[in-house]
Design brief:
Blueprint (H helix, E strand, L loop, with lengths): L1 E13 L2 E14 L14 E16 L3 E10 L3 E2 L2 E5 L14 E2 L5 E2 L4 E5 L6 E2 L3 E14 L2 E10 L7 E4 L10 E4 L4 E9 L1
Antiparallel strand pairs: 1-2, 2-3, 3-4, 4-11, 5-10, 6-9, 7-8, 11-12, 12-15, 13-14
């Protein structure tokens, strides 16, 4: 079950600029890794997510078009996970196992080991992600065709945020497994005819 509130605003192109923005906030009561096929699997939890995006276009002098995008994403909730297993000396097993939960949410079950949440799913939150991108472009006539030159800048503020982290208890708990790409640029052209 989830509830979402969304709001957006748009200004059409006039006076050489346009603006659009949108915000969404979601409250969820759900199974974070899908419905478990085992009573030992993670149960349903309350957790939230939110995001904001704004874009602006400006027709600058000399036929130059500037386009900017700002994106903000609230970090995902997560729980500290503990892997428990039956002792090798005992010939016992779990009645059903949740298995290890991969970063993509897939589980690999085993009757001798299972993952459990040591904290509620909303006990922790990953890094918030805030990114600014910009494009500068100019279209130049080339006989019967046109060539569109562009320069893109991604993550201009060089935001440093972990996109995914290790949620398993131990020495690597909360260590990043994927980090937002650094500031990068791209130069290119497109031929139109």
């Amino acid at each position: 079950m989830y509830k979402t509130i969304e709001a957006s605003i748009n200004k059409r192109m006039s006076h050489n600029y346009s603006v659009g923005a949108g915000y969404g906030y979601t409250w969820r009561h759900d199974f974070p890794y899908g419905y478990p096929n085992t009573p030992n699997g993670p149960a349903d939890f309350d957790f939230t997510s939110a995001g904001f995006k704004a874009n602006v276009q400006y027709n600058a002098p000399f036929g130059i078009l500037l386009s900017g995008v700002y994106r903000y994403q609230l970090g995902e909730n997560y729980a500290r996970r503990v892997s428990v297993s039956t002792p090798a000396s005992c010939a016992c097993a779990f009645s059903a196992a949740a298995g290890s939960i991969a970063s993509n949410g897939a589980t690999t079950g085993s009757l001798s080991a299972t993952d459990i949440f040591a904290t509620p799913y909303n006990a922790y939150r990953q890094d918030n992600i805030s990114v600014v991108d910009l494009r500068v472009e100019k279209t130049v006539p080339l006989g019967p065709a046109k060539i569109r030159l562009f320069l893109d800048g991604f993550n201009l503020a060089n935001a440093y945020a972990a996109e995914t982290i290790s949620t398993r208890a131990g020495a690597n708990f909360q260590q990043p497994t994927a980090i937002l790409a650094p500031r990068t640029g791209r130069i290119g052209f497109r031929l139109l005819w």
